[in-house]
Write a structure and sequence with these properties.
This protein is mainly β. It contains no helices and six strands. It has one domain.
């Protein structure tokens, strides 16, 4: 789930032939959940509960289970164009940066 906003460089009114296009930038903030898994011999294993990063072992007693929720920051740019009174077309390039406190490889 995210909340995003656009900044239009030119005046753009959907359906208005006087203002048919604009380049724009978009940015926002959001959150998402994830639950990593892998397949072994055709069986699906959820990795978080297995402690694949040493959680719950004597070797790494200070490691706690990681959260399955993270934040994202989508940002992008594009061009919007009025095709007709009810239809707009947009070409957009977007990237989402994610924020996870700890990533171990």
């Amino acid at each position: 789930m995210s909340l995003q906003g656009d900044f239009n460089f030119f005046r753009f009114i959907p359906g208005d032939p006087l203002y048919p296009f604009t380049p724009y930038i978009t940015l926002g903030v959001g959150t998402f959940n994830y639950d990593p898994y892998a397949f072994l011999n055709g069986q699906k294993y959820f990795l978080r509960k297995l402690g694949t990063e040493g959680q719950g072992t004597a070797t790494y007693p200070d490691r706690k289970p990681y959260s399955n929720q993270a934040f994202c920051f989508p940002l992008g740019m594009g061009v919007k164009y009025n095709l007709s009174k009810n239809i707009n077309l947009a070409f957009e390039i977007k990237k989402s940066e994610i924020s996870i406190k700890k990533i171990r490889i």
